[in-house]
């Protein structure tokens, strides 16, 4: 039997309302961004003004196209759907709307990757023209075999027996393809094509700027700062696509129909333009200060260059005087932000631990200890960063000082730094051992085998020992410390960076191996019942979301730290924000865990009295039909 209850997130009312709310937000944001780019771009950025304006315009138009003009409802895993936006009332054919939508996405992606600088040579002009032509034609193969719509709808019902038949009668419902493979291949090829070129240009620019140059140090420094800002501005909007891509690939791969998940994925894509504009206004200093001036908030004219506002920082062994301090660079902002995070994260982590300990159902008992360990490590690192140590780093040099309770306890700063870096390795190893445990239990079964068990114990112990001592080489050549409390680990960052690179090169390949083996096992093993196999897939998918969502959030601060060290760039305000973002990852992991795992989500909703009567009666199970098979919808 097919489900009779429809999630609120799967309804057209929710979807259209959310898109209209986004439209109301994004229009003033995009208009303000255009005003800042046109009127507040300084002369020193005049060479990229047109590029910035084109990038912003493409982003704004794609947002407006998705959220207001078309408001497309997609019915993944098939390539079908219908519009709800203005285009429906203008009677624009749905096939044209779909084609233009994919073309606009590709065009936006092309501008993100390649920019739009002035083209001086005919080769560059030809290259750019060909790329834009390709962005409008790459999806054409998907239109070469469009089914007759009546036959396409019948095939759609045969493929998805529980597909709501009332959707087929919606105005403008269009079946591009019952099987989305060709469409997926077109999008994948275009993405790889553009990404490879963008990566080549980014590496080439970074290499050029890192080499010695006859230009003045001031010009080189400004170019490096602009490169870092542009890298962040481009990376963050592209990363917004990560979540929707994972959802779409999962639904297509498993041939699942979940309208709520698809709607949320499209909403995330529609949100990327606002994210891009806000990022642009923050990362570029002229735009940031112009925006602050407009809002009369932290106006530069209010910054008084008095002696008390001067600080000395050590950068590459030289003293540099900073007269004008941004509010984000002050200890008050940094410590205050981390203390607010502490006040939020402590009850959230305690609640998460309570849910794991008391609400984990019997069918998940084999992963209860691993879930609790992963949660505890994440929570402890959060508290260590935001309350115990509260470390202030002065990148690009491996140095800094603490502001947390450890100062009052008299804990040596060098020990705090050692523990902080070691905890990075501990988190990585905990995630690795979690996947190793799932790999062992799925492939080798739940039985005990003495030989395998003692080998796994040794494997785990050795990796945890490595996570604690991997940074030790960085402590073998510590320079003389000039100031009490201020600790300089290394003036030259080579050894600490190599230690971190070693740790991640040890963990990452193994984690990828275990994830790949688990995926292969789940999608190629038919020995167990279909229901058990489907539940294991759902649990593994939820587990990946729980781990990878916080890791994606860490991408941005880690990217800034790497770029700051690479380009020898000092910006205390940006470093403070990056560390605050890192301290936020634990609470995000806990919230994600409570959302993606059905037993934990239902238990949480039950506690906060947001559950329906059906959920109260059966807090751990819901039943739905997917591809004609009744299966338990727990992510385990």
TrEMBL record:
Cleaved signal peptide residues: none
Coiled-coil regions listed in the entry: none
Keywords: Membrane, Transmembrane, Transmembrane helix
Membrane spanning residue stretches: 14-39, 51-76, 96-116, 128-146, 173-206, 226-252, 264-283, 372-395, 415-435, 456-475, 487-507, 539-567, 573-596
Protein name according to UniProt: Serpentine Receptor, class H
Source organism (scientific name): Caenorhabditis latens
